[in-house]
Amino acid sequence: MKILLVEDDKTIASGLEYSLQQDHFSTILCYDASSAKKILTEQIDQIALCLFDLSLPDGSGYDLCRMVKEKSDLPVIFLTAVDDEVNVVMGLDMGADDYVTKPFRIRELLSRIKSVLRRYHKQTQTKTVIEIENIKINTLEGKVYKNGVEVILTALEYRLLLIFANHIGQVLSRNQLLEQIWDVAGDFVNDNTLTVYIKRLREKLEDQPQNPTIVKTVRGVGYKVGD
Q: How many CA atoms lie within 13 A of 30 on its CB side?
């Protein structure tokens, strides 16, 4: 399994890379956000997990996490010297899977990595196909079908549908949806843009977009898919 390690402290990075390789992981090492973004653009399908230092000379681990979660459902673990509850919550709300504060023991980090990978592997095994009425989502292929015919969705439309699919029967507020959706440039999607994406999703999935039965509006609260 290949791990993307982004750490600007070269001493720490070297030690981590050695330990990961000794534990039979292959690694891609970057010292800054710009080189990491290039790797994520070109090689994200080869990566099993990301380890991001929170503070980087040209950005932050948050920026990289947003990019990862926009492109794929890869696990992300943050490494940081800041033991701060606000940062922990922010990182986890953004979709990070774990958060390790420096200094840490390498055995603890390796244990966290394996635990996260096991959890993702289990999710992949149990939820490779999600069905909602006449809509089928194949998460391994990253494709969506309506009545057996493929529906072409943009990356953000697909991301939005996956959020709903992973919360079947749960009412999601607009704020909850906004927190989980980021555009390709890494800028926060605003409320008006979310309205547009909901409308587009309905136009592609619903038999009658003006009277939706899949992505339902819960007046005054948000949206719900499924019962």
A: 24
In angstroms, the CA 56 to CA 59 distance is 5
Give the pLDDT confidence of 81-136 residue by residue, as tens digits. 766 666 767 777 778 888 888 888 898 899 989 888 887 765 555 557 888 999 99
Q: With both helix axes pointing from N to C terminus, report the angle between 61-71 and 33-43 in degrees, rounded to the nearest 10.
A: 10
Query: Is the omega angle on the peptide bond into residue 103 within 30 degrees of 0, that is, cis?
Result: yes
Decide: helix, strand or coil at residue 146: strand
Q: Cβ neighbours of residue 183 under 8 Å, at least 6 residues apart?
A: 70, 156, 189, 193
Tokens of 144: 């969506």
147: left (phi over 0), alpha (psi -120 to 50) or beta: left
Cα-based distances in Å from 39 to 49, 61, 68, 194:
13, 14, 11, 29
pTM over 0.90: no
